[in-house]
Every structure is written in C-alpha cells, then in structure tokens.
Amino acid sequence: MTTSEDIVRRAAAAFNAGRRDEARQLCEEGLVTSPGEPMISHLLAAVLATSGEFDAARKHVEASLTAQPDNAAARLLAARLARMAGEFDRALEHLDRGIAVAPQREAFIEKARTFDQAGLWPQARQAWNAILDVIPDHAEAAARSGRLAWEDGEAALAVKFLERATQKDAPASVWFDLGLARQDLRDYTNATAAYRKAIELKDDHAEAVFNLGVVLQETGDLDAAMRAYAQAYRLRPSSFGNIAMALTSASHGRLWLDEAALRRELGG
User: What domain of life does the native source organism fall in (predicted)?
Assistant: First the structure.
C-alpha cells in the first residue's frame, strides 16, 4: 500500500531532480485518494509556488495548515505567499505562529522582509539589525539596514552597513545606495567609485549616471560631469530639468540661459 510518506518522498525526489511536472502529478494524485493530507498539500503548495501559481499554492498550504496548524515550515511558506499578495497582517500572523513553534532563522528574515515591504520602517530596521547581530555577513540585512538608515538621515551609519553589504556580490541598487550615503557625507571620491560600480553592473541605471554627474561637478570636473549628464539625458530625457538645476545650483557649474543650447550640448 502506498502511503502519504511514500508519495511525498517520491514527489520530493522528482522535484529535486528538476522534474516539477512529475512532482506535481504525484501530489495531485495523492490528494485524490487522501484529500487535505497535510504533507502532500504542503509539498504541492511549494511546487506550485516555484511555478508562479501563487493563488493555487496559497489554497493548498492553507489546507495543510488546517490539518497541521503548528507546522512551522508550512507557516513560513504561507507567510511568503501572503506577503507576495500584499496581505502583510496575514503574513505576520503566520510568522508569529511559526516562530512560536520553531524559531527558524528564515522566519526572522521573512519577518524583516514583511515589515520592509509593508512600509513599517522602524520595525524593519529593528528586524534587519537583529539579523545582523546574529549573522554579521548577511548581505541583504546589511543592504536594507543601510538604506533605511540613509532614509532616516543617518548617512554615516548607512555607509557602514552598505560597505558591509558590498563585500559580497552586491547588485547595482546597493552600490547606488552606498553612493547616495557617501555623497551626503561629501565624500565625493568614494561616491564616484560607488556610482561607477552601479553603472558597471547596470549600464541603464539613469539615477546613478545623473548622480555621478553631480559628484563629478562637485569635484570641479565639469567636462566629465557633462558627459555623465549627457548619458543620463539619453537614458531618461525627463531628467533634463534636474540636470539644468544641478548645473546652475552647484558650486561648480554653468549658467544656461538658452534651454535649446543646453539640450544640444547634452546631445538632444
């Protein structure tokens, strides 16, 4: 007789081998003979989630939790799916219930993400900082702690966090945030390096290109700044107003009385 454990074992092996359709079929067939079986429902939810079928995944993980409400792994999956649907209160309910049963590291990370995505900035900062206390090299926690510190006007603290985040393979967005924090501290040389790294990783990063122009202008390298502004203008023509304002308001700038002449200078 085939048991639920056998079905889960075979389906998990198929999934781990990259045979998602087979794993799904095994789970669906198992639920025909054992409707609502929690292990199978949980595994099917995980399979569906990896395929982007989030609504169906939520249905099955909730069925699993109805039968086994104290399954911490299922609570974590349900929380992720709820967060992705924008149901943050529901996500936090799942996480708190799961953490009470088994305080997993991944659950605390998911809780920080949920606070962050929900716009609960104080709670997010506290949660990310707590993760760094336990996992000092956690790149995502360092990046988000840095960004949130910068948004709270704590540029020096932001730099410390963001420099930690860039010790690993950080995306362009983290290098851009590091550039912003250094720029606020008037550390233009290192801000330039951070913006250049962001552009190297994402050559259409219009904000990084524009800010590179600003810091180059602040250092007195107006020719290089104009080249950066021209690139920013090509990437995003709507940035013209910001470019014109930067050129006339910075300590090293030019006064353009003719808008058409500036557009020509920028290549437009």
Answer: Bacteria
Query: What local confidence, expressed as pLDDT, does residue 254 receive?
Result: 60
| CA-wise closest residue to 34 among 26, 71, 76 | 26
- Which residues 6+ apart lie within 8 Å of 124 measured at CB? 112, 115, 116, 144, 148
Mean predicted confidence (pLDDT) in 73-79 = 96
CATH superfamily entry for domain 1-68: Tetratricopeptide repeat domain (1.25.40.10)
- For 58, residues 6+ apart whose C-beta sits below 8 A from its C-beta are 45, 78, 81, 82, 85
Nearest to 163 by CA among 136, 186, 188: 136
Cβ pair 44, 59 in contact under 8 A:
no
**pLDDT over 90 at 234, yes or no:** yes
